[in-house]
User: Which sequence fits this backbone?
């Protein structure tokens, strides 16, 4: 039994399950490094997953579906950005509202567009490149590109500066507001892409609420990974393995309710044991007012 839980099949399942978490966690990291709390990842993923299927359904092209998902995630992020950056609203409340909006809007549009309440019609999905769909490879590459950009480029230095001390960054000519908008929108676009990985990569349909808390798990992976790309990758793989383990244990005599709880138990253990030891960006969640600097 146990050898079945540590083999190549489990490795492949882990990578597939971790991919949406990796991409979303990296997006959340970029936004939070700039000082914007990004609890809205769940809603952006969900809108991305839905839009990907709608666009693929009408065009017959899953790549256009992926593009639609990226745009949808960016639009949801822009809403979050305007509310949080321009109007300086509480970023946790704003993000929660985005999640609620996405949950209700996708159910409503599912009924309007497809005339169904739960699952969309099947659409053309992304092709397989070897054992994985293309977004899996992109997710791994994204981690190392982001690591390089954040720590070895002037743009990454600016992002870290506005998240740690925005007033000081402003005094040396960095446009804090513009940079935060860019980071939040990139975050949303990546979350939308992660949603497409679910609906067009792993499946070929949209299912009501199909993200199933993955946005929150990605947020936990980002925190567990201490707001670093490599750390987020490691945490996402851990949570991805918990999901693969859940699937591997099905039908082995273990009550299904316990099996389904495994990814969330991993998440709660990680948050309870490590959140207090992680140090977020100093200005995280603090609206920036140039007039008061």
Assistant:
């Amino acid at each position: 039994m146990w050898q079945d839980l540590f083999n190549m099949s489990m490795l492949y399942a882990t990578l597939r399950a971790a991919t949406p978490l990796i991409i979303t966690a990296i997006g959340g990291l970029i936004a939070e490094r700039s000082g914007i709390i990004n609890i809205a990842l769940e809603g952006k993923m969900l809108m991305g997953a839905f839009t990907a299927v709608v666009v693929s359904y009408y065009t017959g092209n899953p790549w256009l579906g992926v593009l639609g998902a990226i745009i949808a995630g960016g639009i949801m992020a822009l809403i979050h950005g305007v509310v949080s950056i321009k109007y300086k609203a509480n970023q946790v409340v704003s993000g929660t509202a985005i999640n609620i909006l996405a949950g209700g809007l996708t159910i409503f549009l599912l009924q309007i567009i497809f005339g169904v309440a739960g699952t969309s019609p099947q659409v053309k999905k992304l092709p397989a490149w070897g054992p994985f769909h293309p977004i899996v490879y992109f997710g791994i590459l994204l981690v190392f590109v982001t690591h390089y950009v954040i720590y070895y480029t002037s743009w990454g230095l600016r992002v870290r500066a506005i998240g740690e001390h925005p007033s000081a960054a402003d005094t040396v000519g960095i446009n804090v507001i513009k940079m935060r908008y860019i980071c939040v929108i990139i975050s949303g676009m990546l979350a939308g892409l992660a949603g497409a990985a679910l609906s067009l990569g792993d499946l070929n349909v949209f299912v009501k609420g199909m993200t199933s808390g993955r946005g929150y798990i990605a947020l936990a992976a980002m925190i567990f990974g201490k707001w670093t790309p490599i750390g987020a990758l490691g945490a996402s793989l851990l949570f991805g393995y918990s999901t693969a383990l859940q699937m591997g244990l099905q039908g082995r005599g273990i009550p299904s309710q316990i099996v389904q709880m495994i990814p969330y138990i991993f998440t709660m253990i990680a948050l309870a044991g490590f959140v207090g030891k992680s140090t977020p960006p100093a200005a995280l969640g603090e609206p920036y007012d140039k007039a008061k600097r």
Q: What stands out?
A: The chain has a mean pLDDT of 90. Residues 2-281+284-288 form a domain with the ABC transporter involved in vitamin B12 uptake, BtuC fold (CATH 1.10.3470). The chain has one domain: 2-281+284-288. The CA atoms of residues 77 and 188 lie 5 Å apart.
